[in-house]
Design goal:
Strand content: 15-25%
Number of helices: 17
Shape: globular
Length: 482
């Protein structure tokens, strides 16, 4: 990046812009502790400059400068993913959006809230609670995840089973294009706001969102213990088809339960079985119906145990601690997969075959987010301090995705590291359509380049598959004690 452009930006934005190597270094990673040995030779993750705009107008000004000089721009707020979605790989400008937060307006007649993109979901929930309102859905990473960030991801999480994805709840957005134009979009405009959902910051910078909210209702929580994943699936499907749709369903496999028990954090001190947390929200009548539904499920399945209310309520309170197994770490590696519910038992069975084959513990848990799909996270302990071992262990993430793909699943989120598998996520016709939208809206390719649409050459599907399979073979032969 031209030093004259950097100096111009520094002069314009003062202490809200920096080219300090120390400060820029904090933006070279996200939650994934990927070794420098793997990243450094392949990508240029240190941005040339970091800018913290405090208004839509400043975002537009930055984009105009970047567009004029063909400078890559990577927007970032919470940085709470593990796919390098918000990490630059071609240097350029890192646009830190964390100053753009707060609620702009609440419309209780329309039941919407207008919010800035870097507002976290926990901040929004606390604000809405003072008005007797609540978000319709929110991610399991609510304390750190931002409204704009989740919209630019797939946007399925807690509450999606009842209220749909975040995209279905967004009425309008304000977005700054790569050329610096400010647009106000709805589902009926051209371009449509739909194009920006799950775009991972590759089309423009979302600076405001109007999102539907709900009345804050009472809740009722249930926790069921099953002897097998087949029984777990049957219960899931029965509960989904019942007259009252749950707000949330979260499952934990037996290995995950054992792992938590070893750390002293298992619900109710349980040591075996498959758990299903079912959470309802609504009127008193709706919650009474929910009680009837769960009682019916337990009566039809002899091997199911309905755990105590206190245990179920505690599991709900722990809903944002899905990564608590990291305590057995020091780190976790894993794959998050969009998986058909009907194939969950078969997926879990193959995961355990893999566990035995590679002599490691694999833990699976996830959320049911539609009537047919769940987001499943399968993880294992790793240690990034042992760099070579850690890189070899990364091959097992690909093996987990292979199992998910075999059962109709695909990666949940793309970024950089899942880009080699983009063909599993999108049909070729759909991917071509997305590429056309990208080229139309970002003709110079400056918005978060190198993500989502295709893998960088070094990570093309052939190279990636060959390398991961070779490393997995090495892991199987040499890594029994890792």
């Amino acid at each position: 990046m031209n030093t004259e452009i950097i100096q111009e930006i520094l002069d314009q934005y003062g202490d809200r812009a920096t080219n300090s190597i120390f400060e820029r270094s904090f933006y070279t990673r996200d939650l994934a502790p990927v070794p420098e040995l793997l990243v450094g030779p392949l990508f240029r993750t240190l941005p040339d400059i970091v800018i913290r705009p405090e208004s839509t107008e400043e975002v537009a000004g930055i984009m105009k400068t970047a567009f004029k000089h063909n400078v890559p721009v990577t927007p970032r707020a919470g940085g709470s993913t593990v796919y390098f979605n918000s990490v630059p790989i071609h240097k350029g400008i890192l646009m830190d959006l964390n100053v753009l937060k707060g609620v702009a307006a609440v419309d209780e007649t329309a039941m919407t809230v207008t919010v800035k993109p870097a507002t976290t979901w926990i901040e929004l929930d606390r604000y809405l609670s003072t008005k007797g309102l609540a978000p319709k859905s929110f991610p399991s990473s609510t304390p750190a995840a931002t409204i704009g960030g989740w919209f630019c991801m797939m946007g399925y999480g807690i509450g999606s089973l009842k209220y749909g994805s975040l995209l279905s709840q967004v009425r309008s957005i304000e977005v700054v294009t790569p050329e610096g134009e400010v647009l106000h979009l709805t589902k009926k405009t051209q371009p449509s706001l739909d194009w920006y959902a799950a775009s991972e910051g590759t089309l423009g910078v979302v600076t405001q969102l109007e999102v539907e909210v709900r009345r804050r209702n009472d809740m009722k929580h249930f926790l069921l213990q099953f002897a097998s994943p087949a029984e777990l699936r049957t219960a899931m499907q029965a509960i989904i088809k019942a007259a009252e749709v749950p707000f949330n369903m979260h499952f934990t496999d037996q290995e995950c339960l054992k792992g938590m028990n070893a750390l002293g954090i298992a619900p109710g001190g349980l040591t075996e079985g498959y758990l299903l947390a079912v959470d309802y929200e609504g009127s008193e009548q709706e919650l009474e119906l929910a009680q009837t539904i769960i009682q019916s499920i337990t009566e039809k399945t002899q091997s199911v145990t309905l755990l105590q209310n206190e245990t179920a309520e505690l599991e709900w309170e722990e809903k944002f601690k899905a990564m608590r197994l990291k305590r057995g770490g020091p780190s976790l590696l894993g794959a998050e997969i969009w998986l058909p519910i009907k194939n969950l038992p078969e997926y879990l069975a193959d995961v355990q075959k893999m566990s035995r084959s590679y002599n490691l513990d694999l833990f699976s848990y996830g959320h049911v987010v539609t009537s047919e799909y769940a987001t499943v996270m399968t993880t294992f302990n790793a240690d990034e301090l042992y760099t070579i071992r850690y890189i070899i262990n990364l091959s097992l993430v690909k093996k987990l995705h292979d199992i998910g793909y075999h059962y109709g699943g695909c990666p949940y989120g793309i970024g950089l590291w899942n880009a080699p598998m983009v063909g599993r996520i999108h049909e070729s016709s759909e991917l071509n359509k997305l590429k056309k939208i990208k080229s139309d809206l970002d003709p110079k390719g400056i918005m978060n380049p190198g993500k989502v649409y295709r893998a960088p050459f070094i990570l093309n599907p052939f190279n990636y598959t060959l390398a991961m399979d070779v490393l997995a073979g090495v892991r199987k032969v040499l890594g029994k004690g890792w």
